[in-house]
């Protein structure tokens, strides 16, 4: 869904504020922010788009005080799907590489830049959502990315429809099988959210949404 003018302004303001807090205000940082918003708005995105980015930033605002390094978390959210082609298996790696190039070339003191780049790289790669233990601020980045799972049913349904449109080129039978495998993999986890904050608020509705979505897919197999 394209950004409204107000949403675009909100994202732009958030990027400028983040860069100012990092000491990166300037035309170069502004240009990267514009490039990021453009990248997030490209075809064939229908869920992993700029509205998802904005939702992530809004979630971040609510937990910023609980992050060890909130700037690293925010940067990871900005970059985590900056490169996104549904058929590619290298989206996270290429997104993390973009983040690393930006940070290392930002003019920050070298030690700070190296540390920040390493953190953001790790956090972006964590959004591959492999089943495994998360540590530190990785937990916030991944939980924010997965917050859509615990939204009201109509919002979650729109998410599923958006994902299907992103994979419009996949035959229905193959999509049902593949998407069903993804949904089951989430449901089989002991918990969906690593942080207690998200677990307490979204775990139950997320599991209900996933169960309904899986049942709907299974009905399509018949």
TrEMBL record:
Classification via InterPro entries: HD_phosphohydro
PANTHER family membership: HD PHOSPHOHYDROLASE FAMILY PROTEIN-RELATED, PTHR21174
Protein name as catalogued: Metal-dependent HD superfamily phosphohydrolase
Organism: Caldimonas mangrovi
């Amino acid at each position: 869904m394209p950004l409204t003018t107000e949403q675009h302004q909100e994202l732009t303001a958030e990027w400028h504020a983040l860069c100012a807090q990092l000491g990166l205000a300037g035309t170069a940082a502004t240009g990267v922010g514009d490039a990021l918003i453009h990248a997030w708005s490209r075809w064939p995105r229908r869920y992993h788009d700029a509205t998802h980015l904005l939702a992530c930033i809004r979630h971040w605002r609510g937990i910023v005080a609980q992050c060890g390094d909130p700037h690293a978390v925010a940067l990871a959210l900005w970059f985590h799907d900056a490169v996104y082609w549904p058929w590619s298996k290298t989206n996270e790696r290429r997104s993390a590489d973009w983040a690393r190039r930006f940070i290392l070339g930002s003019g920050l003191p070298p030690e700070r830049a190296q540390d920040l780049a390493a953190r953001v790289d790790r956090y972006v790669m964590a959004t591959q959502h492999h089943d495994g233990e998360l540590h530190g601020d990785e937990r916030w980045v991944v939980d924010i990315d997965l917050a859509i799972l615990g939204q009201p049913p109509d919002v979650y349904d729109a998410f599923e429809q958006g994902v299907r449109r992103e994979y419009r080129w996949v035959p229905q039978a193959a999509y049902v099988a593949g998407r069903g495998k993804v949904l089951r993999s989430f449901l089989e986890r002991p918990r969906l959210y690593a942080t207690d904050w998200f677990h307490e608020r979204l775990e139950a509705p997320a599991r209900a949404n996933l169960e309904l979505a899986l049942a709907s897919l299974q009905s399509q197999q018949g």
